[in-house]
Amino acid sequence: MTRLTRDDIVVASGKRFATYGYHGTSMRDLGDDLGILGSSIYAHVGGKHELLVAVVERASDLFSASAAAAIALGGDPDDTLKALVAGHIDVLVDHAAEAKTFLNEAWFLEESDRLHVIQIRNDYEAVFRRTIQLGVDDGTFRRGVDVEVASIYILSILNAIERWFRPNGRLDRAELATDMHRFIVEGLT
Question: Per the confidence metrics, is the pTM higher than 0.85?
């Protein structure tokens, strides 16, 4: 038998939180998923809240890294927006449990942790707003676009993907990213 690590527990927690929610998950449930007693988990973590923090932080780091990668590519605002859309989809698909927990369960964090996550989310959204504003400024996107509302629309549409997209479904990930980018840009132009 291989030794269980904290990372194993965080991954299992993400899956459990994504499926049953934070409040619908007990340490006993996690222990059952991992094949150990629930009380054994406390050898690795201080409690369920610590696990929620770890899962949500992992997701926020993934979203932030995808935005940084999109910016690092350079290019015009449309290229950056395309990379932001594809990167967001990659996080939602490749790290579905963490992303779903971030989107749906982060509100159950204690206040200081929740405020920290909200700041990270705001910083991430700011990348979308800056990209749209640059596109408005250089004529890529139409004048008069409400940049803040547009970024909320875009992220709302993207975040809804976790509810319906299946990697083995009608669209593959690349087609989804292309279609989603096209849909968004048509709204901006």
Answer: yes
